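Re: export button greyed out
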Amino acid sequence: MREEVALACLAGRRTCRNCGAVYHTPFNPPRQAGVCDACGGELYQRPDETKEAHSHRLQVYQQQTAPLVDYYRFAGRKNENTYFMYPRTNICSGEHG
Ligand SMILES: [Zn+2]
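Workaround output, generated via the alternate export path:
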């Protein structure tokens, strides 16, 4: 289980105040730190994304998304970028499937 990846994703999440675009500092940073690529708005870290919230989301991730990780590890085993891209998209967007 790549908990470190999930936690880094959640901790690095930034949301645009203006348009709601989501960035991830470790994986998908904006071109200019703190500034939305799409609209130039201010990026912020949601105050409810506490350690407790991270822990809860990680549990949800493990229960609902971990099977997908196994699938993508198999499907993308010749392409590490593909393997990492799919699970982190699910985690960071809060969407499952
Ligand atoms: Zn924006």
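Residues 16, 18-19, 21, 36, 38-39, 41 surround zinc ion (CB under 6 Å). The button fix ships in the next patch.
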